[in-house]
Amino acid sequence: QVQLVESGGGVVQPGRSLRLSCEASGFSIRSYGMHWVRQAPGKGLEWVSFISHDGSNKYYVDSVKGRFTISRDNSKNTLYLQVNSLRVEDTGMYYCAKDQSEYSNAWYSPFDSWGQGTLVTVSS
Amino acid sequence: DIVLTQSPGTLSLSPGERATLSCRASQSVSSNYLAWYQQKPGQAPRLIYGASSRATGIPDRFSGSGSGTNFTLTISRLEPEDFAVYYCQQYGNSWTFGQGTKVEV
């Protein structure tokens, strides 16, 4: 069955960097657009970033543009999020999620599978 | 950006009762690209309703309706496992989530 497993979170000081990973199994990520969604402690969901199935399109929420970079390695069936210049307000659980529709290059698909998340805590 | 406003913030009901959750968009949602997710404490969100239909494995007591800027998720008869937080999401113009509605006993 479809499984997404995130890793790479941790406790870091403001201004530092992390690389989050999301290893997929049960399907090939090369056929699907993939997302990162975050959730601050006790708060709601916030979409963070999207990469199209072929990597040609990448989108970011305004608050992370220029600091976060989404990428994928289809040969490893793994999604990544490089998070730089971290701020206290970036603290939260980071989930990867899969588009329901195949070969998505932008929006028009809900997210039908989610990982359990990796926790990022930014604190001095 | 499309802003989604969910109401009420908290819905206090008993098992067997009907739950009606509202999601209002700041502008029309393209082609009704509106989804609903359920999240229980300590768990990842789960797709309940999207692409105008229930997701795989979701019981038929869950139904979605609406168009344009007003959408509703209805749970016809609450089961104990339905008490959770529900988020609406639009995916017709980028992606945004509502702030959530907590359905509690």
What does this protein look like?
The complex is a heterodimer of chains A (124) and B (105). By secondary structure, chain A is mainly beta. Chain A is 0% helix and 53% strand. Chain A has strands spanning 3-7, 10-12, 18-25, 32-39, 45-51, 58-60, 68-73, 78-83, 92-102, 111-114, 118-122. Chain B is globular and about 35 Å long. The model of chain B has no long low-confidence stretch (mean pLDDT 95). Chain B has strands at residues 4-7, 10-12, 19-25, 34-39, 46-50, 53-54, 62-67, 70-75, 85-90, 96-97, 101-104. Chain B contains no helices and eleven strands. Chain B is mostly beta strands and 105 residues long. Chains A and B meet through strand 5, strand 9 and strand 10 of A and strand 4, strand 5 and strand 10 of B.
Q: Beta-strand percentage of chain B?
A: over 45%
- Report strand % of chain A: over 45%
End-to-end separation of chain A: 40 Å
Biggest sheet overview of chain B:
7 strands, mixed
- Report the uncertain regions of chain B: none
SSE layout:
The complex is a heterodimer of chains A (124) and B (105).
Chain A lengths: L2 E5 L2 E3 L5 E8 L6 E8 L5 E7 L6 E3 L7 E6 L4 E6 L8 E11 L8 E4 L3 E5 L2
Parallel strand pairs in A: 2-11
Antiparallel strand pairs in A: 1-3, 3-8, 4-5, 4-9, 5-6, 7-8, 9-10, 9-11
Chain B lengths: L3 E4 L2 E3 L6 E7 L8 E6 L6 E5 L2 E2 L7 E6 L2 E6 L9 E6 L5 E2 L3 E4 L1
Parallel strand pairs in B: 2-11
Antiparallel strand pairs in B: 1-3, 3-8, 4-5, 4-9, 5-6, 7-8, 9-10, 9-11
What keyword list fits this structure?
A: mainly beta, 4-stranded antiparallel beta sheet, 11 strands, B: 105 residues, mainly beta, 7-stranded mixed beta sheet, 49% strand
